[in-house]
Amino acid sequence: MRKLLVVLGASLALALTAGTAPGAAQSSGRAQRGEQRGNPQRAAVARRKSVKRRQRKLLKCNRTFNGVTARQVVVPRNGACILKRSTVKGSVQVLGNAYFEARKTSIRGDVEGRNALTIFIHSNSRVARQVVAKRTPQVFLFGSTVGNGVQARDAISDFGHVQLCGMTILEGDVFVEVTGRDVFVGDPRAGDCPGNSVRRGNVAIQRNYTDIELIVSGNRISSGSLTVSGNTGPSEKLVQGNTGAGTLTCEGNTLPFVATANLGWQQQFGQCL
Known about the structure:
Elements: H1 2-15, H2 29-36, H3 40-57, E1 59-60, E2 64-66, E3 69-70, E4 73-75, E5 80-84, E6 87-88, E7 92-94, E8 99-103, E9 106-107, E10 111-114, E11 118-122, E12 126-127, E13 131-134, E14 138-142, E15 145-146, E16 150-165, E17 168-169, E18 174-185, E19 197-198, E20 203-206, E21 213-217, E22 220-221, E23 226-229, E24 237-240, E25 243-244, E26 247-251, E27 257-260, E28 267-270
Parallel strand pairs: 1-4, 2-5, 3-6, 4-7, 5-8, 6-9, 7-10, 8-11, 9-12, 10-13, 11-14, 12-15, 13-16, 14-16, 15-17, 16-18, 17-19, 18-20, 18-21, 19-22, 20-23, 21-24, 22-25, 23-26, 24-27, 26-28
């Protein structure tokens, strides 16, 4: 079922890729001079170089790119952008109702979506700074590395899914707050969602509403705390097999709620005792 959700997201991206690549602007002064000198071949080369320089500065991404390098990427409103084996020297901004996917891609800044549709990062991609998804109902982070934390906030939706599997967070906190209907932060039981490693930071799963599932399982939090609190809805809520060196707190979660086999914590409180 989870794989199907991801496939549906990818299909949506393909369906939205009616936009074309960033168009070439009018010819540069150098190209115009080449044409004036009666050398159209030189002018064409100059135009291509000019377009490439502009693309490297700002890539307006509304289709699939493979092996591209850009300083900054913007996914336009209602657009769909897929980057494969690419490098972004700065940040990625995902605008309203847009879909962004990164596969085997290096992003040296942030990935930020506000009122976007989907952020999907997978297959050993790397984000040097933060992944921030606000009012973005679909957040899929699989088997990749983030340097400075993850935020998924304020996106309870009929098609809402927040899924973090096999991620490495080098430092910074992970917040999943006020989202729904389906939340899992690690779920080794499923076989396709290993736990996450948070090396220097806290994890907070708070005030979410779920009627499919809320699973926090198999995560290793090396030097921070885990808080699971205020989560509501009729779904199963499971906190299981998480290890850490700080404080584990579970409180105010509605039933059904189960906490088991969470080991190594200095202190445990509330429903996780």
